[in-house]
Amino acid sequence: MDKIKIRGLEIWAKHGVFPEENVLGQKFVISADLYTNTRSAGKSDDLTQSIHYGEVCQFMKTFMEEHTYQLIETVAEKLAEELLLVFEHLQGIRLEIAKPWAPVGLPLDTVSVEISRFWHRAYLALGSNLGDKEAYLRQGIQGLQDRKDCRVTAVSSFLRTAPYGGVAQDDFLNACLELDTLLTPEELLDVMHEIEQEAGRERLIHWGPRTLDLDIIFYDDIVYDTPELHIPHIDMQNRDFVLNPLAELCPAYRHPLLKKTVEELKNALTEPEEAHAK
What we know:
The protein is an alpha+beta fold.
């Protein structure tokens, strides 16, 4: 990915663990790599197609001056998030914040914190088979859209499907959505659980009825496995109620383990039924 580099921006601000640092202030030095696609701007010579690095520098200066934090780790985290939220073409950032006068009582050049943060693309599955199913799905979508660190960029059709897992219950209403997010997979999972709880979700029976069910299907192209979370979703290739709406959004998206596209997985699931019908 292309990047615009900012090096050695000096700012006087009030951040630090010691009270005098928050009163008197000190010098901070910021360096940043702004990850973006510069091709459109390069071909058109149009600044609106790129990131105005002068505005970015002024934004960082104002942010540093108007806020006070004890840790430069917090300064870096908050500043990176705000930059990613404010600047349209910014897809990611590597940010280093240095304290040349760090009060450690020993001779040193500088102490710094460096982080990298990016927008991530995730695909989620939604389901409901209790009460007003469509209202619950829309509540789940809105719950994500209401967060500043999540952007719902596309939603599939709502599809009525038979229940999965052998538990006798009403039919489901299912959908998938495309999401850009600053959250990590674990943070996104926590947010999804909060949204489910707000919709009255109760986890009483495995594969049982629920007001709202949210699952992460893909998150970028990562393979992630913990006791609480599996990415890609561990059983998505066997679920037509996931593959059908997902194919509306990203038919060419390739499963990082199975090496097949969503469209190929969908076709593989329906082909045996079609062959048996013949």
